[in-house]
Amino acid sequence: MSSSSLDQCMLPLRAIPGGYGVPFFGPIKDRYDYFYNQGEDEFFKTRIAKYKSTIFRTNMPPGPFISSNSKVVTVLDSKSFPILFDISKVEKRNILDGTYMPSTAFFGGYRVCAFLDPSEPNHRVLKSFCMNFLFSSRDKFIPYMRTSLSEMFSKLEGEISDGLQADFNVHSDNMAFDFFFRLFTGVSPSETDLKSRGPGITSTWLVLQLAPIMSLGLKYVPNFIDDLIHTFRLPFCVTKSGYKKFYKAVYNSATSLLDEAEKTGINREEACHNIIFLIGFSAFGGMKVVFPALIKWVASAGESLHNRLVDEIRSVVKEEGGVTFSALEKMSLVKSVVYEAFRIEPPVPYQYAKAKEDLVIESHDARFEIKKGETIFGFQTFATKDPKVFDNPDVFIADRFVGDGEKLLKYVYWSNARETDNPTLDDKQCAGKDLVVLCSRMMLVEFFLRYDTFTVEVGKLPLGSSVKITSFTKAS
């Protein structure tokens, strides 16, 4: 018998603690605890303490009237969390956002690839289309990103020089939208009917879909008013005209990419809606959280880290003769900083799946039985701060993954898989995982090629962090 099998047999089999409360009212109570009475982190911490377990039963938002079944088995440690990636045991059909699915009106009437389970034939076709495009476009990543970043920093500097705080989120959103739109279509959004409206249109489209699992965070708005977005779906018609502009811009610009889609048997219209989802939800939506979080954590680490990043980045770029894939791979501290930002604040904090069969899963302390059809929920922010894996898990440690620390990368779950895994056609790992990492490294590299240090003010937004640049010290 292997040591892992022996360990499993030694762990006690325990009934999953927790419960769902009275029908209808139980989910609403848990929803109020989650958003208002306790807040997200405290919601999970109190239940871990109460049940003395990182695996327990609870309801997850939104509940009535949006979700017909809010019951989940919650997994909050690094050992149990990977069950959510095992598509031989769990199903990922229509469960991307949680215990509800937005109307397909948001996607032109199609179930786009993100909502398909790998067992569905169309999943493989659509993911292959995406992965092939990314592979064929790899030579554009660095030059396109450098151009977009250069424009962003010029605008940030303009605000600072006028004696103002620079709103990093606004400029970062504009930069990210410009980069991904140009990558997929070959033209700048400013050359289409979108003009400069793309980020605003896309942000509205995102919020309407995700409102059931987010809080507006408005200080003087009573909870029962805020809770209306968790009770009733927000209609697509609010963003219908904007989405039409987005669709038209992509359809008219990405002609060669749409031609390729048709050659692989994908309906041209369906391909266009999938491209919009990739640009707007997967890429732009992800980067709305990733870039501000990265800058926030690097700023919080202070000038000593900034000096180390300056030394590494500038010396490697000089040695390599420019910003290249090879240069980026040699920047061990830059790589570690990006992974640490993903660990401490995963861009997509929630994972959901349904058990395909009766399962036994393990925490560090016990085994638990999950029945076929039960929904499993994982909060990545707890799994990637597991104190049994990471020392000082709540602290941002910039060089955590340097040298021997690289061995811990298998416990960094941010892309719907382990960081050490690579996406395939038959899993749900983010197809653009490596591009997200590359863009994040590029953000740091371009930042510290221009500046020696900087300061920020940080706040909270419904999606991620608010970051305002208060000062730059230009490169000496």
From TrEMBL:
**Alphabetically, which GO biological process terms does the record hold?**
fatty acid metabolic process; sterol metabolic process
Gene3D superfamilies from the entry?
Cytochrome P450 (1.10.630.10)
Task: Name the UniProt key words of this record, in alphabetical order.
Answer: Heme, Iron, Lyase, Metal-binding
Q: Name one GO molecular function term.
A: monooxygenase activity
Tree of life domain: Eukaryota
| Pfam short name (any one) | p450
Q: What is this protein called?
A: Cytochrome P450
